[in-house]
TrEMBL record:
Pfam family, one: ABC2_membrane
Membrane topology: Multi-pass membrane protein
GO molecular function, one term: ABC-type transporter activity
Keyword Cell membrane appears in the UniProt entry: yes
Name of the featured protein: Transport permease protein
Gene Ontology biological process terms, A to Z: lipopolysaccharide transport
GO cellular component: ATP-binding cassette (ABC) transporter complex
Domain (ABC transmembrane type-2) ranges: 31-249
UniProt xrefs under InterPro entries: ABC2_TM, ABC2_TM_bact-type, ABC_2_transport
Length: 257
């Protein structure tokens, strides 16, 4: 209860930090927030041209399949990377005034989530152009996004702690994200990979978030209870581990930043 009261006390500051991060992201850009729509659209056009021409995947409505996975993984990649740098980048402020330190990684993740919501407009445009069938299940699309947000907050908290004590994570995390992306069926169907790779993919949390999102918006299916439980399990474990590691180490930050 004490942690919740403390969080509520600083909600205005958190809101200001999120607004600041969004302004900084598109500062001096001519198109500004429009890039939140253009980026996923342009990437989808390039990747669709490459993969549908060379690999001939038998996937109905490939542009929506590709864009739905790409948007979710881009959010995860961007949010956790910016959260990782948040404590180091705010070192001078942390040393001068008291602010709950979790505000810094949390604001970065929430600002990336706002960008994700803008990107959904691009997905809606592609769905309308490709004449996809809409059903009532699409109204549940916020559920996998919520699971992914909680999962990303947990990973972001862990990474923000690790990089304070191990600067090499700044460089290593990009490599890990690249491997993570290729082990998530974003641009290929899972049935084309060998069995041993499927085993790895089934242990990848991002697979379940993407799969649940696609079932709702692309396949017009209600996600199974098992899929919901997998998403809930991964997001809960990530958040609990992230909070534990962060609170155990936050008082040591000033000695290392």
């Amino acid at each position: 209860m004490r942690y919740f009261t403390n969080f509520w006390k600083y909600k205005e500051l958190l809101t200001q930090f999120v607004a600041r991060d969004l302004k900084l992201k598109y500062r001096r850009s001519v198109l500004g927030y429009l890039w939140s729509l253009l980026n996923p659209l342009l990437m989808m056009m390039v990747l669709t041209a490459v993969f549908s021409s060379f690999f001939k995947f038998d996937i109905p409505n490939y542009p929506v399949y590709l864009l739905s996975g790409q948007i979710l993984f881009s959010f995860f990649s961007e949010s956790t990377t910016t959260a990782m740098n948040s404590i180091l980048g705010s070192g001078s402020l942390i040393k001068k005034v008291y602010i709950p330190k979790y505000i810094f990684p949390l604001s970065r993740i929430l600002s990336s989530f706002v960008t994700l919501l803008f990107s959904l407009v691009a997905l809606l445009i592609v769905m309308l152009i490709t004449d996809i069938q809409f059903s009532a299940t699409i109204l549940l699309f916020p559920l996998p996004l919520f699971y992914l947000l909680i999962f990303s907050i947990g990973i972001g908290l862990i990474m923000s702690v690790l990089v304070v004590f191990f600067r090499d994570m700044l460089h290593l995390y990009g490599v890990l994200l690249s491997a993570w992306m290729y082990l998530t069926p974003i641009f290929y169907p899972i049935n084309i990979v060998p069995d041993f790779v499927k085993t790895i993919i089934y242990s990848n949390p991002m697979y379940y978030f993407v799969e649940m999102f696609r079932e709702l918006i692309l396949y017009n299916q209600m996600p199974s209870l098992q899929l919901n439980l997998m998403c809930l399990m991964f997001s809960s474990i990530s958040l609990l581990v992230g909070l534990f590691i962060f609170y155990k180490n936050q008082n040591k930050f000033v000695l290392h930043i």
